[in-house]
Amino acid sequence: MNHEPCTSEARELATEIDRTGARLADVRAAIGRVIFGQDSVIDQFLITLLAGGHALLIGVPGLGKTRLVETIGTVTGLDTKRVQCTPDLMPADILGSEVLEESESGLREFRFIPGPVFCSFLMADEINRASPRTQSALLQAMQEHTVTVAGTRRDLPQPFHVFATQNPLELEGTYPLPEAQLDRFLMEIDIDYPGRDAEREMLVVTTGLDEEKPAGVLNSTELMAAQRLVRRIPVGESVVEAILDLVRSGRPDASDGSSGILWGPGPRASQSLMLAVRARALLDHRLAPSVDDVLDLAGPVLRHRMQLTFAARADGVTLDEVIERLKAPLG
After folding, report:
1. Kind plus residue range of the DSSP H or E element containing 216
2. CA distances (Å), 232 to each of 10, 16, 48, 278, in order?
3. 195, CA 20 to 30 Å: which among 49, 110, 248, 260?
């Protein structure tokens, strides 16, 4: 008899997961009609949104990074704004500023004009082209969901997500993101070239007169309900231990000295991975995440939170190789 409330709660949770999973399947399908050959990338995007986080997109020009962000913003019903980062972009261009206005009666007062950061879905295009001062303007917004302008704290809309892009080729005139800001991104999503069949479909669909336009499927209220549901999904002890083993093994003091790790992921990486595996389970209509989820999401969650020593880089060692080595004991 004592188990009845628990059983009832579990049934209610399962029903809610099934219902939300069906809605997310519609979101996937709507995005897939516009974005071709990037199923894994789309899933990582949605996982980031469901986990309530921010994402850093890495990819060469022409792979549809901007189009992907705009499409997901439309499909999920979020108020989307875009900032093109350039070296002369100032913090006020993102956060907003106060201007002195004079009324007809001669009374002067300051009025705050909000910047593009006051939205639910901010795209910072080529974020590494902005100066460090401007990059740091996003730090408080990403972590606390508030900004401080002229000494006044102002809350941002909820939900609030930053999706920033980087071009890995043109590094002239760029400013690498500091480690503190990289750690604010839940995932680093690497976008690769589409397969031949996907590119063929893209050619046919996008060069005709009637190109498919994204349509809204969710709204912000439904998205926030899904984000709350993610945090209710139970996580087994084996998954918790796998997350801890993986993240802690990526730190220099846990290595054997030959791994070449200069600095590794902190506790925020463990939190991000925990939320990400829960979100992936919801996206796949599952009641709980598995160790396979930990292994599959290890790269996107850890890649930008680690750095190799100069000696390791000189020997041609890559972060992906190191992460694969760290995953090996987990299966």
Report:
1. none
2. 11, 11, 16, 9
3. 49
